[in-house]
């Protein structure tokens, strides 16, 4: 039985213990949601992203739990500080 790879357009991103993001997948939507629900039930910080096709392929967040937003904001602030150092 061959798997339709074109349906595997979802991944789950999990914030690890040392502030690293681990990416799991690709999954179909059902498997991604199942994986995400396990992380959510454990009180983790995770999100589901979906591959958007177009001129460039980008990953769009479609669901999240925990505090992904403040972690991402912290990364952007850290990069801004690094750029200002002379």
Report on this model:
- The protein has a four-stranded antiparallel β-sheet with strand order 2-1-3-4, with helices on one face.
- The chain has helices at 29-41, 68-84, and strands spanning 10-15, 21-27, 46-52, 58-65.
- The chain is α+β, with helices and mostly antiparallel strands and 86 residues long.
- The chain starts with 9 loop residues before the first strand and ends with a helix.
- Mean pLDDT is 79; it is low at 74-81.
- 35% of the residues lie in helices and 33% in strands.
Topology:
Layout: E1 10-15, E2 21-27, H1 29-41, E3 46-52, E4 58-65, H2 68-84
Antiparallel strand pairs: 1-2, 1-3, 3-4
Radius of gyration: 15 Å
Q: Distance N terminus to C terminus? A: 58 Å
Count, helices? 2
Overall strand count: 4
The overall average pLDDT, rounded, is 79
User: What structural class should be given to the helix and strand makeup?
Assistant: alpha+beta
Attribute tags:
about 90 residues; alpha+beta; 4 strands; about 35% strand
Give a brief outline of the structure:
By secondary structure, the protein is of the alpha+beta class. Helices cover 35% and strands 33% of the residues.
């Amino acid at each position: 039985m061959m798997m339709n790879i074109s349906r595997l357009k979802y991944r789950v991103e999990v914030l690890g213990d040392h502030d690293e993001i681990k990416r799991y997948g690709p999954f179909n939507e059902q498997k991604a949601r199942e994986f995400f629900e396990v992380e959510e039930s454990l009180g983790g910080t995770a999100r589901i992203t979906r591959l958007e096709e177009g001129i460039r392929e980008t990953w769009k967040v479609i669901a999240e739990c925990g505090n992904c937003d403040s972690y991402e904001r912290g990364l952007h602030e850290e990069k801004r500080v690094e750029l200002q150092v002379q």
